[in-house]
Amino acid sequence: MSWQTVAAKDVRDAGRSKTIWLVVGVLGLLFLVLIGADLWTDGDLFTDFTDFVTTIVSILGFLVPLIALLLGYKSVIHERVSGSIVLSLSFPHSRRELIAGTFAGRGVVLLAPVLGTLAVVGLLGGLMYPPSGSELLGFAWFVLITALFGLGFLAVAIALSMSTTAERRVTLGTFGAYILLVSFWDNLVTATVQFLYRFRQEALFTLPDWAYLLYLLKPAEAYNRLLRVGFDTTRGARYASSEAPWFVDWWMGVVVFAAWIAVPLAVGLSRFDRTDL
């Protein structure tokens, strides 16, 4: 049994989750409400296609992490608690192949509905606000970085699922990861800057170079930074200002996403490899 076989099995298993499809349904419903509100106001809700996409990002910023974390946090621990993981590992493949297949399978279940919904919403938005050629390319880039954004959170969830056999710990860890990475990261960086600069407010207006990088490590900030590559938007503007250091250019956003995918999986796999099943 190869990782591809594990991935196919995971697609079937994860695809049956009613909770995941409920959240995806909420995502689609919010987009429909958004489009309906624009039609109700005779197209006055957005100024152009870029403004339309920027508003979509606001919705994706809190729902995509939720979908990814819900999809991944029980992916391994459920198999361990039920004992089915022992049966899976009795086939000729390693633990690494098992995790690779799990990540690939859950990634398909995550990206297929989310990106499919984006394609439909993008088509409707394009009909209402005809995009320019550069905006069409920008939308393709936007779909790609949305995939990276979701895969980063999926990797965190699977890593948590690998790290322990206690379901309560995984649940609390997943909840904490969502709160930290979606809501409180900016506050922690701001508090750190203020503490180190003795609570002088001017420090927040002339940020030290390292603070830019700490802010950019938040997945949503990397998402916003990369969005500026495809669209002329105010999101991620601080990283494009003249005061911003060179190392927070758009490519660092790609590095951040790669790190959020690779590092949690590597750490989780390291713990998983040392665990007696």
TrEMBL record:
Keywords: Membrane, Transmembrane, Transmembrane helix. Pfam families: ABC2_membrane_2. GO terms for cellular component: plasma membrane. It comes from the Archaea. GO terms for molecular function: ABC-type transporter activity. The chain crosses the membrane at residues 20-40, 52-73, 103-127, 139-160, 172-197, 250-269. PANTHER family: ABC TRANSPORTER PERMEASE. This is ABC transporter permease. It comes from Natronosalvus hydrolyticus.
